[in-house]
Design brief:
Layout lengths: L11 E9 L18 E7 L6 E2 L6 H4 L12 H18 L6 E5 L7 H6 L3 E5 L3 H9 L3 E3 L5 H11 L2 E7 L8 H11 E12 L1 H6 L12 E2 L2 H10 L2 E9 L5 E8 L8 H13 L10 H21 L4 E4 L3 H10 L9 E2 L17 E2 L2 H6 L3 E4 L5 H7 L9 E4 L5 E2 L1
Parallel strand pairs: 4-5, 4-7, 5-6, 7-8, 12-13, 12-15, 13-14, 15-16
Antiparallel strand pairs: 1-2, 2-3, 3-9, 8-11, 10-11, 16-17
Helix pairs in contact: 5-6
């Protein structure tokens, strides 16, 4: 196996999470009677460019299907994050109605709705029909295509260049990361800016966020590596910020190599921080597997003990990261009765692999479980506030990552 960016041979395995189904491949009741596809979920690190990655067992169209069930607008905290971002970049780059903003992986229009509200022309690139339709219902132009250099060239030929491009939580989701980044180099105006947000590799390793590993995430990113990938396509990183989403992410600002955007000292500071953390040291990656096993065993011990004591355990949030955790631990519906999720697109289906049924949030008050296992731990504050009634019947919230915690 060779690195998907630089082509170097991959010799160091970081973690093996076993054979797992695609984490967003939620099942209908009829599908429970059929076969289910599994693929190895192994992570490697490249010693040349330090890109952390999994093998490409799935093509993009196999994971991001027409009935894709993840809708960004379900999370109010994510909507707030998007609205704040739009306010920030509008002021920073002086965006007006004369500009064109393009978001790649625009989902259901969660972000571009705030761009449109400011009277700025905007377009979303979103390959999944379900979310693109929801965006159009908001009045957001949405192109149902996978993004890359070819599509970028078509857009430039027909529409010109974009003043700003946004790509939140998608850089990790592309099997051909070089072609994907090349698309931004083509689409971006000479003095334009491109922003990318992605979970920070440092938090994944140091915080043992192993459940953020799943087949949709082909890559796990540091600024050290992203700067190399961008430079190979003629883009220069001129600023970086830390944002709290998804357990700690980076927001990277890039431009053409010869653009006038002045480099912020934050870039050099982050690169130095990553070097100190161990991003370029093979030994830094060696402890993740043992920490993941500890979390798995602690979770299983809790679930088995609760079951033997006659306690009922439910889960909240039918998130991809939760599916990685449950499948890695071998948890099935005999240990977790059901999972609640606010997304109507997931309700009535079953989690991949574990086959735990997905119910609406109202099921918590109806069934009153003794414990509620929060699977999207990055939304713990939002979930515990919204579902505070769990404490009314003596129930407790539980978080498994990075350590078993009762709330």
């Amino acid at each position: 196996m060779n690195c998907r960016h630089c082509g170097a041979a991959l010799t160091q395995q970081v973690i093996d999470l076993g054979h797992q189904p695609a984490s967003n491949a939620y099942l209908t009741a009829a599908q429970l009677e059929g076969t289910e596809g599994y693929a190895p979920l192994k992570v490697y690190v490249c010693h040349q460019c330090w890109l952390v990655q999994i093998p490409s067992f799935h093509a993009s169209h196999e994971l991001f299907t027409a009935d894709y069930a993840y809708f960004s607008s379900v999370s109010q905290s994510w909507l707030d994050h998007a609205q704040a971002y739009v306010a920030t970049v509008t002021e920073r780059f002086g965006l007006t109605s004369d500009d064109w903003v393009v978001e790649v992986a625009s989902n259901d229009g969660y972000l571009l709705q705030y761009v449109a509200a400011r009277g700025i022309t905007c377009t979303g690139i979103e390959p999944t029909a379900s979310t693109a339709a929801a965006a159009r219902a908001r009045g957001i132009e949405s192109i149902e295509r996978f993004f890359g250099a070819d599509l970028a060239q078509e857009l430039v030929a027909s529409r010109g260049h974009a003043s700003l491009t946004a790509a939140n939580n998608v850089l990790a989701h592309v099997p051909d990361i070089n072609d994907f980044v090349a698309g931004f180099a083509v689409l971006l105006a000479p003095e334009g800016a491109a922003t990318f947000e992605f979970p920070h590799l440092v938090n994944l390793i140091d915080g043992c966020q192993f459940d953020t590993i799943y087949h949709e995430h082909y890559s796990y990113l540091s600024l050290t590596t992203v700067e190399k990938i961008f430079a190979a396509q003629g883009l220069r990183v001129f600023d970086v910020e830390e944002v709290p989403t998804h357990g700690g992410s980076l927001r990277v600002y890039a431009c053409h190599a010869d653009a006038a955007h002045e480099a912020n000292p934050a870039v050099a500071a982050m690169l130095a921080r990553e070097e100190k953390a161990g991003v370029t040291n093979p030994a830094w990656y060696a402890g993740l597997a043992a920490e993941a096993e500890r979390i798995k065993l602690d979770l299983l011990d809790f679930l088995i003990t609760a079951r033997r004591a006659g306690k009922r355990v439910a889960a909240y949030g039918a998130a991809a990261k939760g599916n990685t955790l449950l499948n890695y631990a071998g948890v099935r519906a005999d240990l977790v009765d059901f999972v609640c999720d606010a997304a109507p697109s997931k309700q009535g289906r079953f989690l991949p692999g574990s086959h735990v049924p997905i119910l609406p949030p109202s099921a918590l008050a109806e069934r009153k479980p003794d414990y509620v296992l929060i699977l999207p731990w990055n939304l713990t504050a939002e979930i515990t506030a919204a579902q505070a009634q769990v404490h009314d019947w003596g129930g407790k919230f539980v978080v498994a990552v990075p350590a078993l915690t009762f709330l």
